[in-house]
Specification:
single chain; mainly alpha; three-stranded parallel β-sheet; 14 helices; about 55% helix; binds tryptophanyl-5'AMP
Amino acid sequence: MENEIRKKIMLSGIQPSGDLHLGNYLGAVKNWGARADEFDCYYFMADLHTLTVRQNPAELRRRTLEQLAQYIACGIDPEKNTLFVQSHVHEHAELGWILNCYTMFGELSRMTQFKDKSAKNADNINGGLFTYPALMAADILLYQADYVPVGEDQRQHCELTRDIAVRFNNIYGEVFKIPEAYVPKAGARVMGLANPGSKMSKSDPAGCVFLMEKPEDIARKFKRAVTDSDTENCVRFDMKEKPGVSNLMNIYSAVTGKSFEEIEREFSGCGYGVFKPAVGDAVIETLRPIREEAQRLLADKAYLQQVYTDGAQRASAIARKTLRKVYKKVGLVEKPF
Ligand code: TYM
């Protein structure tokens, strides 16, 4: 009966390891707010995950709070969604440990993000970096999430989460709901403006547009966006032959809702010199209200603290139930207090 009336659950998180950028927004956050009435939604700042790479402690604290302000400014209403800091709900780390014991070395070795990050941090390939997907599985499975709205690059981790959940359920019965990744049509993989061959990421600031960035800086980045070396100079979607222009079309489509055909028609006869600033302007206008609202919220620390305190309390109530069930299933003696 409980299952019949329960709303479907949506859950996602972002690491506060850098300032939020356009890829995070279009690939993930933009799709969170819209479904708050339909779903029971949980969104968090994945601060424990950031520790897999060395962080400046003061910066990490600052970015975690800023990220919360930006979630709200992006339309994630704290009255309708549960917003919390991952480390405030200790069940994440605890279930993470258990799931580590149900995740195979071979599976973890195949994770693209592990391979990429260990190549970038060759002097710090730590155990956390390797076992990170088990913690991500815990984040998701603790809340019995149905859908996980993420960009394309997180699909592999979501698939592994499903495998871990199925493996666990096969041994102990129906403990976990099997979640599904929920990847948007436009914006699922935003590429860097300076290098359209790799995804937009904070590690390449020249090609990365941050949510809090000044309009003039955003405009400059779009004007300098690398377009393609073909002689055609025409706005046409072709990911293989024209990755730079196709990426800009993808961004324009995600912020305006226009299809690729509509965009090709709108800019027919115009060269890249017209198209690039037009995409920049559309992005600036999308981000302007978000930036302004985030700045306003950041001035009200007491409000933000109230939001994450309420969020952690609500999240803990759910997480506790799942963890208790898991502990019992695997054979741990029930806590006497
Ligand atoms: P993270 O912090 O790297 O990225 C956060 C979200 O932004 C999306 N994203 C992008 N989408 C489109 N284009 C891009 N260039 C781009 N870059 C990032 C990511 O797909 C993601 O949705 N492991 C996760 C955080 C996490 C999580 C979770 C997510 C921890 N626990 C539980 C969902 C559920 C991560 O590192 O994402």
